Amino acid sequence: MALKKFFNPSSVAIVGASRTKGKVGYEILRSMLDGGFKGGIFPINPKSETIEGLKCYPDLESIGQVPELVIIVVPAKAVPTVMQQCAKIGSRAVVIITAGFKEVGQEGRELENRVIQIARQGHIRVIGPNCLGVIVPGSNLNASFGGEMPAKGTIGYISQSGALMAAILDMANANRIGFSKLVSIGNKADINELDIIKAFAADAETRVIAGYLESIVDGNTFVNQAEQISLRKPILLMKAGVTSAGAKAASSHTGSLAGSEVAYECVFERAGIIRCSSIKQQFDYAQAFANQPLPGGSRVVLITNAGGAGIMAADSVEQHGLSFAKLSEETTAKLAAKLPASANIHNPVDILGDALADRYEFVLDTVLDDEGVDVVLVLLTPQAMTQPTATAEAMVRITHRKPAKTVLACFLGASKIAEAAKILKKGKIPIYDSTEMAVSTIKVMTDYLRWKTRPKRVVKLFAVNRRKVENVIERYLRRGSREIGEEDSKEILEAYGFVTPKGSIATTAEQAANIAQQLGFPVVLKIWSPDILHKSDLGGVKLGLENATAVMDAFDLMMHRIPKQAPNANILGVLVQEMCRGGKEVILGMHRDPHFGPLMMFGMGGIMVEVLKDVAFYLAPLTAEEAKQMLINTRTYKMLKGVRGQESTDIDAIAEGLQRLSQLVTEFPQIQEMDINPYVVGRAGTTAIAVDARISVEQS
Ligand code: COA
Question: Best mutation site among 14, 74, 104 for ligand 1, i.e. most ligand atoms within 8 A of its Cβ?
Fold first, then answer.
């Protein structure tokens, strides 16, 4: 197992073990003793001979053997010296509890760098600094000051916040939730979140990986590896520390709508990570993944002794897009034969308020045999004759006999169901205190199943002209310009298979009218200058010109006004361009996230993109399915499909445009942001046109 010395050490030294109750160094030693650690425990403290009955050593060298794990809990300034001792005696695994490193500023950062330098030279792996410690119930190892040792279980937990981990422990202990391992990673100076997640993935005792993160160290590696791990074990994360600072600095539409929150959503989606918004929600989900088999599908059956609870759960089933299992004739016949006449033998199965444990037992037993059922949710409210405890016992009995299907419980109440809740938890049946939470857990499990069994991602590569794009970008970077001009943007788009509007440059009004005649009316006029990027701001764009006179007038007006407004601009003429009409305007975009790379965007085009914010993001490179899913994820999709008898827009053309754009920005990391806006798409079979694009580049 990776990081074995952290999780199953044969001996542990605590440098800074204190004689004084309440000090961190004392509490860690106490936790080690209370946890019943079976290997050697070596307190290190030069001021004492013994602590808590254990022989105390003045320093690591005096132990006379090499402790496999060293916990450092001395003041920050003394940490480098202790690290040097670790290197000298050959200890290779260190947890630094001490705070006062990079989290406190420059001086702390330098100290942390020094510590890590010593670690690298001494081949030492480090968890922390500034962390709560490591807990492994299966090894009786509680090398932390987080409190009581939790029960042994199958959840591997990683926390970037030590304080939050203490709260999680307390909550888990109160709710009898067990762990395989808990790691507080603190400042992640050496071992980071991915190292721990990988260790949990390889750990036979861990079935579910859960955690709280504030940042991710190496975005790209994280996405790729987490995606592989999610295929084997579910990862449930709370993610905080999201800001919109990145979005504020952006210049494109896509950039202003992106931001790190969106990036994390995309990463979690790609990697199949289940995002949780609270500790309670995380444990509600985790206990189901840890204790129940994944459902084979999304057909849910509800068994209830209370009509109201049944209706609430049924509403949630519908809202979450799950399906109601249709019970077979054989099942309903069996139910009808034994249940009172007024019971409902169809889903939701209402077994009435006077249901005793045996009625629950019979119905659960029967529906579990029905091939049309994937998940059973057993609902109970404690009415006068209800037997919550006996019902829980019956459920445990049956699910142990028939363990193949997912069974969850939602017992509503408090004191009357407390004993039943204990029995269910012990019997590995997750129990929920609200119908909504129970059903949303089913939804999360079925979503994970769908993600896990999705077809292998295949990214199509289009035949393109890379050389052409390379030349344009290099030219801009050489002269230090960031924004690519319209003509060059067109060249880039065309090199990647986009069709752009036809048009030519005119230098006289007559020439403009001639070009317009050839293109066919109406046309668009655009001032043509490498020095004017935002043409419309200066009145440099005129749309919908219907005849030669209108074209000549517009030409003269532009050539008269704009040189006055932009006296330093080199004006080369006016672009006369075909006017694209009749299609829907959408936007295809990309914002390069500094940690995770290109985020693709699709949304309603034109000015509506920023008003409606009806957009979908996805991490590049896109597969055809993902590109299509982006469309489906917006409200615009319905409109594109055609409402009230309108013809459907060419959805495939948009999806292909997104894939081509995804290929472009993946192959050219210099492209920082890009919008194709509008991308005009007609009905199937017509040509989609990339009317305008904004591309900004930077040396990568
Ligand atoms: N080797 C061995 N023992 C040493 C030592 C060394 N180099 N230097 C000091 N000690 C001993 C001290 O004698 C003391 O023992 P005593 O209480 O029996 O006299 C013990 O180690 C602790 O040293 P002390 O100077 O009293 O420090 P402290 O307990 O006040 O603080 C920390 C030490 C590490 C707890 C503190 O610096 C710290 O970082 N606190 C925050 C921890 C934290 O919040 N971590 C993040 C959680 S998420």
Answer: 74
